[in-house]
Queue: 3 jobs
Job 1
Amino acid sequence: MIDLRRLHVLRAVDHYGTVTAAARALHFTPSAASQQIRQLARDLGVDLLEPQGRGVRLTPAARSLLTHADAIQAHWERAELDLRADRTDPAGLLRTSGFPVAISVLLAPMAAHLRERHPKLCVRIQEAEVTESFDLLFEGEIDLAVVEATPHNPPLSDARFDQQPLLDDPFDLVVPDTHRLAGCTHVDLRDAAREEWIAPVPDSPCRPHVLSACGASGFTPDVVHHAMDWNVMAHLVANGLGVALIPRLAHLTPHLPISRVRCTDDPHRKLLTCTRSGGHERPAVAAALRELRALAPTAVA
């Protein structure tokens, strides 16, 4: 019989990319994690890791095994649901995560609504960026995440996760109130091609959206300032230091001398809900997903 704990170590190596990273996430030493995989390989009579440069990689046999492991995890989620089939009313603990804007506009009101409608359900919210949310789901630390679609996310075909579209969040061009485009109802991004720009920091998941939107309009923005927080960017704009693309979901500091102008090009980012495979059927998660879908249409109005 396969030892599921050892199988989970192998899944972690695949998820995190190295034995050392997997061991860190599982609170093992690297040698202990390696021992778990070696023992699993002996139990199955196949090699699961092979040398690659200074590290290791999963063998074809390990890849085949992981396909079954992901199915086992999904079946386990459904088995837990079957055991609680008589508990149709959401109850217990629901653990969620999201990036700051998603928490402010979606997860916080969702939690408030659930508290009113399902008093036996306790919702916990954790701020986490996209990659961390997928790690938390994989580790079983959360049950539901709201994430931004990025090129670095697991593919939609990844059997470990159930990712579903939630909403499109448009980017508005934000300019100082005194700017020539401030009075426009809509603007073509090409009209701001020669401006100085304020953009998200290089490792931000939103930076590719901004650069791609400008590229699709035929120019590369002259980025002179970088920021991590949308309100920091808004303050830079307010002081006449450049223009910026800022998502409509981002609530900016009131009374700043700035104007948000809609773009005819319709640049946007996509927000997704994500659970472990099979996890969306749990009553608490299903109730949360219903609330999020109800909130989504009004969030970007």
Job 2
Amino acid sequence: MTQTFTLTLSCAQRPGIVHAVSSFLFEQNCDIAEHQQFDDTRSDAFFLRTSFVSAGDVDIEHLTAQFADVAARFAMTFNFNGSDLPRVIVMVSKMGHCLNDLIFRWRAGNLGAELVAVVSNHEVLRPMAEAAGLPFVHVPVTPTTKPEAEARLLELVEEFDADLVVLARYMQVLSDDACRALRGRAINIHHSFLPGFKGAKPYHQAFDRGVKQVGATAHYVTPDLDEGPIIEQEVIRIDHSFDPVRLATVGQDAEALALSRAVRWHCENRVLLHGHRTVVFS
């Protein structure tokens, strides 16, 4: 049976990297199906994503062990992934547009992920989650119970064996400790084409300033609020006739689009972190 794998790596730029990778895959009787690479000349860094198939009896542990010598020669940071869909927990509060979009794409088979649970600090979206056959876990959050709530969240990540946590308009700020625990595996959607309007009623602020584009930003969660590495952004053109209600509706469309792309690209191993930035092989 043919197996599909993905190799992602980063290292300092130098000659021979692609040759070494392709030679290794040839020696393992693997056939390259998709290949992308990027040279960041400003930092002398090299990034690569290669998808390949194998008809032989190999697995990720074998590939990782066999590739170690190549990786050491070029001081690579690398990772092999198989074709199993990453398991995703979605966190929400009261707004359901992003959750609804993720559920639709998941059930249609084009999200690139397996939704395994919905976690919320409110009960409002329980019917939506349960109608989709997803476990719904209510974890109330108050200023005094926030540490316990975050501890419960991390327990749920372990219980559901989740690879990714998606904050789909979850209206709570995660603590620095929680952000560090979920580093590189938590994605947030922000209601603005960052940097933008902050605080309460962003679309009212946008209306008052006469904006001509509404946007949204999907980014990794870090201790720096809304400043994590950006994965995807979406903007939609508007004009003077859009009142705050219409602005919010268009904004929700942008949020759903940006978030679903970010989730899919992350789950397809197309996003490589590079300091405060990302390399996205879309």
Job 3
Amino acid sequence: MIKERLGKGLNTIIMVLVSLLLLLPMIWMISTSFKKAKDVFTYPIQWIPLDPVLTNHIKVWTAGDGFALFYLNSLKISVFLMIGAPLLAALAAYGFSRIEFKGRNTIFLLYLCLMMIPQQVLFVPKFIMFEWMHIYNTHWALILPGLFTVFGVFMIRQFFMSIPHEISEAAFIDGAGHFRIFIQLFLPLSKPVLATFAIIDFTWTWNDYENALIFLLDKKLYTVPLGMQNFMLEAGVDYNLMMAAATAGVVPLLIVFFLGQKYIIQGFSSSAVKG
């Protein structure tokens, strides 16, 4: 019993130390965002600024184009995909897990192979397609491709495969169709995995730099990653301003994570029950 307690205590101490080590860059970023320029590289490091200021954060939102427009653009795209992508992925996952049709497993395997294709390879075909659809240099160029994710279909399908077939068979006997079973049975049961994927998709979309850089030209359409890059070019070597901008960019991710963290472990564990 004593050895077991000592082992758990040692594991806890190690995990706390590793967590603090991983958090040090973020702590330094937040700390620097409240410092004056002359205090950024003082040694030893001032983890808690002796003379904290709010001017850095104020300037981020007011100087130049500001971050308000970039935030609204990113929120619009990220929230739209956070809702739409899990729903479409759940529909596809239901088809691959519960609807019997010829070649289902083969098609699903080929579908999974798309995960091995680098996204950079698709930039030229996407550009040609978006030009033809007249959505280049619009937010639709980011929203439409983002609605379809191979990882989301795979993740949710794995969860659906863990649901006993007796549940859907009983619903069929009662006269329910596939759509009703999906809406009234599978969606309520899959809240953890849907919430987990929604958080992951929000993070992907919020941090998406390459697609925004290639498919958005108008500065009024910029998302937060492009806005941060633009701000850093303007700020030059003002690291305190750059860290204030980076802190502002991280806040929505932290809020979404803390609101949905209870679903993440449950969603991953349940989606891995059955392959």
